[in-house]
Amino acid sequence: MWLHIDAAYAGSSFICPEFRHLLNGVEFADSFNFNPHKWLLVNFDCSAMWVKKRADLIGAFKLDPLYLKHSHQDSGLITDYRHWQLPLGRRFRSLKMWFVFRMYGVKGLQAHIRKHVRLAHEFECLVRQDPRFEICAEVTLGLVCFRLK
């Protein structure tokens, strides 16, 4: 069985040590994905994925027509990313992520995430003050679940 963690939104919050408890059990995952374009100030679309054993992923998507074969493919000297997903070409998304990391740094990105979490708690307080609404679940990161009474 393949255990995949899709942390599309919440994954960005793990840049802050105080939210890493939400990662408990991640060591059992075979793959982990998150989308920096959802909370790390990176332009759409950008996704980051980690795999425990890349051979399993490559085996699922591998495509080797004769016209794409090369002399180094079985040497282990290079990583041929065309076997990691269906498209044979892809945009250079990592560059825009690099620019965000370079401009804001870890501390700047942590401050951004923490500000949004604070705003969620402020919004929770406002909702609790209005007798027409109720909070449905504990506020987690930037997510506030509420409903009309």
From TrEMBL:
<keyword id="KW-0663">Pyridoxal phosphate</keyword>
<protein>
    <recommendedName>
        <fullName>Aromatic-L-amino-acid decarboxylase</fullName>
        <ecNumber>4.1.1.28</ecNumber>
    </recommendedName>
</protein>
<keyword id="KW-0127">Catecholamine biosynthesis</keyword>
<comment type="subunit">
    <text>Homodimer.</text>
</comment>
<dbReference type="InterPro" id="IPR015424">
    <property type="entry name" value="PyrdxlP-dep_Trfase"/>
</dbReference>
<dbReference type="GO" id="GO:0005737">
    <property type="term" value="C:cytoplasm"/>
</dbReference>
<dbReference type="InterPro" id="IPR002129">
    <property type="entry name" value="PyrdxlP-dep_de-COase"/>
</dbReference>
<dbReference type="GO" id="GO:0042427">
    <property type="term" value="P:serotonin biosynthetic process"/>
</dbReference>
<dbReference type="Pfam" id="PF00282">
    <property type="entry name" value="Pyridoxal_deC"/>
</dbReference>
<dbReference type="GO" id="GO:0004058">
    <property type="term" value="F:aromatic-L-amino-acid decarboxylase activity"/>
</dbReference>
<comment type="pathway">
    <text>Catecholamine biosynthesis; dopamine biosynthesis; dopamine from L-tyrosine: step 2/2.</text>
</comment>
<dbReference type="GO" id="GO:0006520">
    <property type="term" value="P:amino acid metabolic process"/>
</dbReference>
<keyword id="KW-0456">Lyase</keyword>
<dbReference type="InterPro" id="IPR010977">
    <property type="entry name" value="Aromatic_deC"/>
</dbReference>
<dbReference type="InterPro" id="IPR021115">
    <property type="entry name" value="Pyridoxal-P_BS"/>
</dbReference>
<dbReference type="InterPro" id="IPR015422">
    <property type="entry name" value="PyrdxlP-dep_Trfase_small"/>
</dbReference>
<dbReference type="GO" id="GO:0042423">
    <property type="term" value="P:catecholamine biosynthetic process"/>
</dbReference>
<dbReference type="GO" id="GO:0019752">
    <property type="term" value="P:carboxylic acid metabolic process"/>
</dbReference>
<comment type="function">
    <text>Catalyzes the decarboxylation of L-3,4-dihydroxyphenylalanine (DOPA) to dopamine and L-5-hydroxytryptophan to serotonin.</text>
</comment>
<comment type="similarity">
    <text>Belongs to the group II decarboxylase family.</text>
</comment>
<keyword id="KW-0210">Decarboxylase</keyword>
<dbReference type="InterPro" id="IPR015421">
    <property type="entry name" value="PyrdxlP-dep_Trfase_major"/>
</dbReference>
<dbReference type="GO" id="GO:0030170">
    <property type="term" value="F:pyridoxal phosphate binding"/>
</dbReference>
